[in-house]
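Q: What does the assembled structure look like for these inputs?
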Amino acid sequence: MIMNNSSAEKFFFESFSTLKETSEFLVSKGNVAMISAGSTDVLVHTQKRGFPNYIVSLNQIQDLNYVNVDKNEVRIGSLTTLTEISESQIIIEKFPALSKAAGQVGSPQIRNRATIAGNLCNASPAADTAPALLVYDAKLKIFNQGNERIVELSEFFVGPGKTILENGDIVIEIILPIQKKSVSSFVKIGKRKALEISIMSMAMSVEIENNIIKSAKVACGSVAPKPVLINKTAKSLVGLEVKDELDLVNAIEIIKKEVTPIDDIRGTANYRLHMLGVTLKRMVLELVRSEA
Amino acid sequence: MMKKLNFVVNNRKYSIEVDPRKTLLDVLREDLKLTGTKKGCGSGECGACTVVIDGQNVNSCMVFALDMEGKEVITIEGLAPKSGEIHPIQQAFVDHGAIQCGFCSPGMIMSTSAILEKHEKPTEEQIREGISGNLCRCTGYVKIVDAIQSLAENK
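A:
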């Protein structure tokens, strides 16, 4: 993205009523155009780095704001706000980690504007909804000039602020397969409750029968250049019979080796590693007890 | 290039030419001279610029003015039922000493209006959650929560 601190004469704010026009316009302008939806990240970017030549707002496009459920999956429109997601009965019931994560982004004012796809496309390593969506095997439907394709969220992030999205791509839907037997949770570690960028976040989805973990997915934010699935740790949980925290000593050792967080302004690598172990332990015990 | 914006602020229709880089906050304060809405951090963290858009509290510094096409915005100036009067929320803040320097008050009061819109009788937790995006550096929040609770009780 090229930022040039455009003057009013060189800066254009465009919005179209259809996806096709929007996508074609984005292709015609290349890397001097930026998509905006809730604008809670875009406006922070423009303050830090200046304006691109074009902001292309999606807000005139109808029908991208919904939570629909059918037999096997829940489909969320890309412009659904984080408030709507955190308060959706379907999401609270079927995808509690996502509802918790969406409800902890920024503040009520931010969540009333910020969209689910914006939280993903901004590609912050600390994006709160990303770990939750990763453990639910989320897929994204992407539109480009009339064509649609579906990608796995686990393949969507490339690095800080970078995704696989190409010119003209617009994320239009998040698809979540319904997992009937799993229980799940999300925890965000920060210094305060509101308006906090996570120091570490973790989501987990597990299937438990008679205290034995049958399957597990774990994902974390703010511990790598992008939100990541923690597969070795998850694998080490499978088959474990969990009665108390002593049963998790090995998994805690594995998670501390599997990720290599860094020191930054929000916390040290050591603190992050420590909290990864603590959070893993608390979350597994919470979920096992909820199924007992 | 200036662009046309049609929207409604405090029940009054506006059709104005705006600089497309401007936020809703800038247009309210600079173009419409509605300076009751305050500019604090300008980056969505302090809540001083909170207004209500279509019934929801929003940071007006985090919204492109041109995204307001066709929308209805209520600012602190539009809250009172009649000119020259104050709204019951404002009265409750006065009665409970919930104002010291006053800079956060317009935003705090707009968030309160959204809380009371959402919950008929909000609990203390719902109140604290509802104002969690509004920073106050004077009061320590206790008197603000008291003021909002008094409104919930009188409903």
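The longest strand of chain B covers residues 3-9.
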